[in-house]
Design brief:
By secondary structure, the chain is α+β, with helices and mostly antiparallel strands. The protein folds into two domains: 33 residues; 85 residues. 25% of the residues lie in helices and 43% in strands. The protein has a five-stranded antiparallel sheet with strand order 3-2-1-4-5. The radius of gyration is 18 Å and the shape is elongated. The termini are far apart.
């Protein structure tokens, strides 16, 4: 292996890492600073958008959530989020959500897996 190949490989790894960090920045921010709340799934429906390959595709769902704030006032909010089939919430179920403190309209459902929280 010569120096050109080594430099090209190092650059490729660094570029991939930087792009991955850029696209997951909002998720990491929300996991760290998001306001936890509980919501009820009012409705859930599939869109025609899927992420991933055919076998492992994650469908993008349009979900209406009813979120109650600290004062007891509830509001409905519509979000779009992709899920694996085993993670998908059902209509009427209670889910944990994180709300962006800077933008209360940005809400994501939290998935618990192996004792850790993550957002798809």
């Amino acid at each position: 292996m010569d120096i050109k190949q080594l430099l090209w490989g190092s650059f490729s790894v660094a570029a991939f890492y930087g792009i991955e960090r850029l696209f997951t920045r909002k998720r990491r921010y929300l996991l760290k600073n998001g306001i936890p709340a509980e919501a009820i799934v009012v409705s859930i429906k599939k869109t025609n958008i899927r992420y991933g390959s055919e076998v492992f595709a994650r469908p993008l769902m349009e979900i209406v959530l009813q979120i109650e704030n600290k004062e007891g006032v509830s509001r409905n909010i519509t979000i779009r989020q992709d899920f694996e089939l085993r993670e998908m919430p059902e209509q009427g179920s209670k889910v944990d959500v994180l709300i962006d403190p800077g933008n209360p309209e940005y809400v994501r459902i939290v998935i618990k897996y192996n004792g850790r929280n993550y957002i798809s």
